[in-house]
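Friendly challenge for the regulars: who can give me the structure tokens for this chain first? No prize, just bragging rights.
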Amino acid sequence: MESFVDKKILLKAYIMLINPNGFREYDARWIFEKDIDLEGIEQLGKGLGSQIINQTRITNPRIIIGHDYRSYSEKIKQAFKKGLISTGCNVEDIGLALSPTVYFAQFNLNADAIAMITASHNENGWTGVKMGIKKGLTHTPEEMKELKDITLNKKFINGKGSEKIIKNFKDIYIKNLINSNKIKKKIKAVVACGNGTASIFAPQILKGIGCEVIELDCKLDWSFPKYNPNPEDLKMLHAISKAVKDNKADIGFGFDGDGDRCGVIDNKGNEIFADKIGLLIARNLSDSHKNSKFIVDVKSTGLFTNDKILKNNKCKTIYWKTGHSHIKKKVNIENALAGFEKSGHFFFNKPLGYGYDDGINSAIQVCHLLVNHGSSMQDIIKELPVTYQTPTMAPFCKDEEKYKVVNNIVKEVEIAKKKDVKIDGQFITDILTVNGVRFSLQDGSWGLIRASSNKPSLVVVTESTTSDSRKKKIFEFIDNLLQKTGKIGEYDQKI
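First reply, four minutes later:
Bragging rights claimed.
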């Protein structure tokens, strides 16, 4: 009979096998071999397989699976597949892929669910899984909680599944995007992939639609020798900016590690935050898609609210929770034409796409914008009112503490509003708490604090309609509140 001490040892070993904190809001991410090992990955596969069978009520559901280009992703995928197959799932492996390639495969092959082995833009050493059952959607927070419960408590279904290798599916995905998106005007584009998986997709597709492509860091290298493939990373953005200016390009695109996000640099080498690109695309689409709905996340610019072109075309904008799962679901529920996140996740619904986020399709829509407008990207962006935005800033905060910290900050902001506290001479007029807290000032300037969905950190963004100075004052107000908690570490980047 096991002693109490033995049980404690076993429990500790189990926690080391799968750190429970790796089950995030809408996907799963761990540092491989520190927080999860191959046995833990197999257990996760059993958990997902059991969940899929429970939801679909299909004995042998078909699951599409792919993996990104990290040194350990393939062996992780093999362990994961083993777990899926043991529950009765029939696994269809499309090999090296982007997340949108896997999403597309579910539609193209009419499968019951998907799983993508990727840690997206996270640093080397991280791994993870993006999952979805209903076509075009990924796991919700509720589904992630359910998956966590099934996996950690071993509520597995036993069955006998199969494995099928699907060769050259990459080509089907590439052709699908090229064939429906040919452009009539040659666009010279810098295409940066940070040596991530998008390297073998993005240049070929953009060349295929008619772009002249200058490749930047498009050689596969899982060590990410220059910078993480992350279109919010300033190192990546600065590299693209230099390449655009050196090559006198019309546009610069930067893709993240699994290709579901895109960053944009204009023809003069200036970064354009993704939310403003989203607004420009929405404007461009609204002329031919009147009465449309657009979904934007709470980190996005406030310019959507009163945009004259969107209003003239009777389009509606809804601000919603940050996170690709949240926005995808909202786009689906509202039957919106598109959704936009400040992080660079864009979601195009029919007839432009299937509702999921695809960074390459986002770049394609920017190309259509340039062609339709007939002006340079710098001239197009000048048509928007000037605002002063910070990049997304992420101060460290432990996973087990970050939501409590945010809840306390919400209360502090509400108190500041009630007491008529001024920030750079402005009162707080509105508070939105759908995801953390977004507060607006009298002139339309705003600040946001929320918990990161996929890392032990918070997220801070500010925007001023008035001045760069006010943007900084709003950040100082937020940072002071955060520092008082005593729970905040270093920022990944700071203004």
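Residues 1-16 have pLDDT under 50 and may be disordered. The CA atoms of residues 40 and 457 lie 24 Å apart. Your move, everyone else.
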